[in-house]
Design a protein that fits this description.
This protein has one domain: Hypothetical protein af1432. The chain has 19 helices and no strands. It has helices at 34-43, 46-50, 69-87, 91-100, 109-119, 128-139, 153-159, 165-174, 182-185, 191-215, 220-223, 227-239, 246-275, 280-285, 294-312, 315-337, 344-347, 352-361, 365-376. Helix 3 packs across helix 10. The chain is globular.
């Protein structure tokens, strides 16, 4: 196995867990490093299993083949590991962060998140990245000695992708110079965390094209307006002029994904050569190093803008998400007024609004729909 680069997060140099644990049973050697152990804890968590019934763009019941938060997370992990291997980064850490990055997402995708943030505005707001951290730090109940999954510093750092300054200050007050410090001092997360952020964007742009065309809300003709797609579509038809149907779309997306991956690898190698960090901590002091080339960045940004206008804001998607938004708002109001409608572990907490947000954000689409029907009939 190729050794990790000096700028990668070295498992043996991990900053550890919030609660000290032996990394292996006393009677046996450890066959897993800390980040492999993190990955395994995430995969076995309740929150991870729920992702299979949480919306990505299209609501879970609208079609069996549309992406969910689960399949999206798996695709991010696959892309992330491929790039990490080429750059000699810590693949296990990349995989752990990728699999956990959406654990705090609400049901009904961004519509549910926006609705819950509006409901929580008087009580501190709601951030899905911060909620993902809450899930792994507090809300999972699997171990006798502590709440959460007790993940390593490096995995938790990668999960907290965004954080409002006010929340960063609160976290830093409890965990001085910890995972939120970078939002206050302007440093970067690990290269592995940076990689997951970019793999996330690559994955959802590609699979949203696939799901958008599959749904009939986007057409291949429309996609010709996007240079990043049109170029690979033309390449595909030039090489396979008789190709028809879904194979044209799949081959176009495959080529687009492949070139984006190679672009990230080459652009990041150039940035690493320029800044030459000698350790993971030195990489944190540099500007962001995992990146697209300037040209690919602009094309990726144009694709994202196209999808926002033509897919995420499509009248059919908006009609569905407007209903989902109302459902979350109504559920929040009911639970806030009648906490006893929640399980006792939530109903008995002193901070009722945050308990409601924790309970609601953990729901799958179909459970939220059933609860709404039960409570508003």
């Amino acid at each position: 196995m190729t050794p990790l680069a000096p700028y990668a997060c070295q498992p043996e140099l991990s900053r550890g867990r919030r609660y000290q644990e032996p990394e292996a049973p006393a009677h046996a050697p450890s066959f897993r490093n800390p980040h492999q152990r993190d990955r395994d804890r995430i995969v076995h968590s309740t929150a991870f299993r729920r992702l299979v019934y949480k919306t990505q763009v299209f609501l879970n019941h609208e079609g069996d083949l549309f992406r969910t938060r689960m399949t999206h997370s798996l695709e991010v992990a696959q892309l992330g590991r491929s790039i990490a291997r080429a750059l000699n980064l810590n693949e296990d850490l990349v995989e752990a962060v990728a699999l956990a990055h959406d654990l705090g997402h609400t049901p009904f995708g961004h519509a549910g998140q926006d609705a819950l943030n509006e409901c929580m505005a008087p009580y501190g707001g709601f951030e899905h990245n911060l909620q993902s951290l809450r899930v792994v730090d507090e809300l999972e109940e699997r171990y006798p000695a502590f709440n959460g999954l007790n993940l390593s510093f490096e995995t938790r750092e990668g999960i907290l992708k965004h954080c409002a300054r006010r929340n960063a200050e609160l976290i830093n007050a409890q965990e001085h110079n910890g995972i939120a410090a970078r939002f206050l001092n302007g440093t970067q997360p690990s290269l592995e965390a940076q990689l997951c952020n970019l793999a996330d964007a690559i994955a959802y742009n590609a699979h949203d094209i696939d799901d958008g065309v599959r749904s009939g809300l986007l057409t291949l003709e429309q996609m010709q307006d996007v240079s990043l797609f049109a170029r690979y579509h033309a390449q595909t038809l030039a090489e396979y002029p008789q190709l028809q149907g879904r194979r044209v779309l799949y081959e176009t997306i495959r080529r687009m994904l492949s070139d984006q991956v190679y672009d990230v690898i080459n652009a990041t190698r150039a940035a690493l050569q320029q800044h030459a960090p000698a350790s993971a901590d030195e990489a944190r002091q540099c500007p962001p190093l995992v990146q697209f080339s300037a040209a690919m960045y602009e094309e990726s940004k144009a694709l994202k803008s196209f999808l926002f206008r033509n897919l995420y804001r499509h009248p059919q998607v908006m009609q569905t998400t407007d209903g989902a938004r109302a459902m979350v708002q109504e559920l929040f109001a009911v639970y806030l007024a009648k906490p006893q409608e929640m399980p006792a572990a939530y109903a008995q907490r002193s901070d009722v609004p945050r308990a409601v947000a924790d309970y609601l954000s953990g729901m799958t689409d179909r459970f939220a729909t059933r609860e709404h029907a039960r409570l508003t009939a």
